[in-house]
Design goal:
About 25% of the residues lie in helices and about 15% in strands. A 7-stranded mixed beta sheet has the order 6-7-8-5-11-14-15, with helices on one face. A 4-stranded mixed beta sheet has the order 9-10-12-13. It has a two-stranded parallel ribbon with strand order 1-2. It has about 375 residues and is α/β, with parallel strands linked by helices. The protein contains 9 helices and 15 strands. This is Trichome birefringence-like family.
Length: about 375
Amino acid sequence: MATPADKPQVVVFFLLLITIFLCFYPGKSSHFGPENDEFWLDEDDNEVDIVQTRRVSSKQCDFTSGKWVYDSSYPLYDSNCPYLSTAVSCQKNGRPDSDYQKWKWKPNACSIPRFDALKFLAKMRRKRIMLVGDSIMRNQWESLVCLVQGVVPTGRKKVSYNGISMSFHALDFETSIEFSWAPLLVELKKGPQNKRILHLDLIEENARYWRGVDILVFDSAHWWTHSDKWSSWDFYMEGQSLIKSMNPMIAYQKGLTTWAKWIDLNLDPRKTRVIFRSMSPRHNRENGWKCYKQKTPLAFFSHQHVPEQLIVLKEVLRRMRFPVYLQDITAMSALRRDGHPSVYRRALDQAQKQHPGDFSSDCSHWCLPGVPDIWNEMLSALL
């Protein structure tokens, strides 16, 4: 039995044991908790312990490094999904091969869990997820809607429109999956003499749609690199300065910085998750015919190129206070020149199929089912 003189030592001993236990007990983080900015998976998602974050961890799963593997159990939904637009419905438009639908991405050090629609909707119960950006993001939105819609009964799902946004609603889950059109993120307006002016420091007209959303996924790259002939604006404007020409990557950096400041000032990381998807690669060389008749992914790159847009984006994200996750899909998707619509962006009759060279070839967007489904499997794992 401890004597009164021994009691202080006993108390110190037990305090020491408790301290050691707390130091090594891993705990469990909340998906939307204020204490940390890491995205943890549920315990039954044990194929991936922790995904990429701003923090460094020996258990990180690097989704960007891996290879495409053929999996006959794919695709994850039927090509007759009613929410697919004509431009990405390659099977309906007469594409003769279908193996492009059956490749999944296998990271080198882990696995991406297979998309589970019911599980995804359960995680997103009473939440709004919004994909913001250009037509490639619309491509990804259609993919995500098709991935989940099959488990939602007829009559318990609908699509609504609000200005530049459209929403798929899973009514029983009180979940909405939304797309908001903002290809440049900042504002493009008509000025005097009907001139198109890109305001590098204005964003609220687009950003007002982003308020109150639980999960925001952004992209913005392609429109910034349009050549003079295809440019969507006639002038840049910054403050009161009207600028005729500017290095496009400097303009991109300025536009992204305006977006970053808005996120930092207006969103609360305890309430909103923000993900920025890197640029989707094009295979437009040879006047858009680089992807025509391609049937398999590339195995590797002889000289891997990092796009300037990705370098600019990483630098802007690095300077932000808000914890934004960069979902880097650029290199992995660059291997998939087989996944584009090419001439099958529209329905071709038998006579037209004999002369495909008479039609333009789309090597920017993606056939669905296809590559964006894998981006959404990654997205589901992050959430």
